[in-house]
Amino acid sequence: MKVKFCGLTGPEDISVANELKPDYVGFVFAGKKRRVTDEQAAALRSLLCHHIPAVGVFAAEPVEHILQLVISGTIQVVQLHGREDKTYIKKLRTQCDVPLIKAFSVADAADIEAAEQSDADLILLDNGAGGTGRVFPWHLLRLIKRPYILAGGLNLCNVKKAMAYAPYALDVSSGIESNGRKDAAKMRAFMRLVRSQ
């Protein structure tokens, strides 16, 4: 099972990521929490092991800005958290050839159905609450037929339960933090739990 450490903001976070080798790391370019500038992200990318893809997390971002970050090599995957529609995704696809993840907030079966119809390469299922540590009703995951990334509220206490739903990947952020900062001990413990399976 793949792992994404999201919301990395400092060299110390990258150092632990290089040690643990998650399948992805995420740089947040949306909202206020854990947000990094283009310059900060480029500096972090330069410290990151070259074989670990960096995912840029965006919400209603101009396509041109995303393209700049892809072309510069700052990010290798695009993750969309806004209300990007099929037209937006098509425009992005025609201009850059990187994997595309679309996030969906899940509250009921209709949300799962909408996610299933996405044109993105991968879908990410979340609680929509943005790093609050809350989970959505996971029993709804039994309805999904395509590979998905599970996010929202993952932590050391529930990661084993999350893995039982067999997602393609686990996306963790607040669950590996203490006092709003990434916690190396929690990052190591989370990876141990996942890799022990």
Quick rundown:
The protein is α/β, with parallel strands linked by helices and 197 residues long.
Mean pLDDT across all amino acids: 94
Number of strands: 10
- The gross shape turns out to be globular
CATH architecture verdict? Alpha-Beta Barrel
The main pleated sheet reads as: 8 strands, parallel, barrel
Low-confidence stretches: none
What is the H/E string?
A: EHEHEHEHEHEEHEEEH
Text of the CATH class: Alpha Beta
Beta-strand portion reads 15-25%
Helix content: 25-40%
N-end to C-end Cα span = 9 Å
User: Strand pairing plus helix content: what structural class?
Assistant: alpha/beta
Number of domains: 1
CATH superfamily: Aldolase class I
Q: Determine the CATH topology.
A: TIM Barrel
Order of strands across the widest beta sheet? 1-2-3-4-5-6-7-8
Radius of gyration: 16 Å
Number of helices: 7
Domain N-(5'phosphoribosyl) anthranilate isomerase (PRAI): 4-191
Catalytic activity: N-(5-phospho-beta-D-ribosyl)anthranilate = 1-(2-carboxyphenylamino)-1-deoxy-D-ribulose 5-phosphate
Keywords: Amino-acid biosynthesis, Aromatic amino acid biosynthesis, Isomerase, Tryptophan biosynthesis
InterPro entries: Aldolase_TIM (IPR013785), PRAI_dom (IPR001240), RibuloseP-bd_barrel (IPR011060), TrpF_fam (IPR044643)
